[in-house]
Amino acid sequence: MNPAVDKTICICNYICVYRLRFAKSVIGDLKRLRAYDRQRIMEAIEKQLLEEPTRPTRNRKLLVNLIPPWTKELPVWKLRVGDYRVFYDVSQEDETVYVRAVRKKPPGKSTEEIL
């Protein structure tokens, strides 16, 4: 594949690199954070969502029956980064990860309550 083409880049036919797209509201979410937290979240997004965004891990979870307040591709996923949660969905067809929101999750609050 030619990396100049706006397509997924596959390495050795096993590891595919997805494109990242951020909702406009995510920019505001990130600007409100301390620089340290913002950098940590961005590094986690790049490390964990570019290659296998739909593979459940200890920090990545599929959210079943969640109806978020934004337009989305089903299903919706959550990435845990410390006290923060990154909400995203994936278009397999476009090979794109859409980051929809970044929220701080205080202890005792549910995912639905922080959205």
Explain the overall architecture.
It is a single chain. The strands form two sheets. The protein has a five-stranded mixed β-sheet with strand order 3-7-6-5-4. It has a two-stranded antiparallel ribbon with strand order 1-2. It is 23% helix and 32% strand. The longest helix has 15 residues, at 35-49. It contains three helices and seven strands. It is α+β, with helices and mostly antiparallel strands. A hairpin with a 4-residue loop joins strand 6 (84-91) and strand 7. The chain is globular and about 35 Å long. The protein has one domain (19-114): RelE-like (YaeB-like fold).
Short description:
With 115 residues, this protein is α+β, with helices and mostly antiparallel strands.
Tell me the layout of helices and strands.
Blueprint: E1 9-11, E2 15-17, E3 19-22, H1 24-31, H2 35-49, E4 60-63, E5 76-81, E6 84-91, E7 96-104, H3 111-114
Parallel strand pairs: 3-7
Antiparallel strand pairs: 1-2, 4-5, 5-6, 6-7
Q: How much helicity do the residues have?
A: 10-25%
Order of helices and strands: EEEHHEEEEH
| Top-tier CATH class | Alpha Beta
* Envelope shape: globular
| Beta fraction | 25-35%
> What is the terminal-to-terminal distance?
39 Å
Structural class: alpha+beta
Strand order of the largest sheet: 3-7-6-5-4
User: Mean pLDDT, rounded to whole units?
Assistant: 85
CATH superfamily: RelE-like
Can you tell me the residue ranges where pLDDT is under 50 for at least 5 consecutive residues? Answer: 1-8
Radius of gyration, in Å, reads 14 Å
Give a quick account of the main beta sheet: strands, pairing sense, barrel closure.
5 strands, mixed
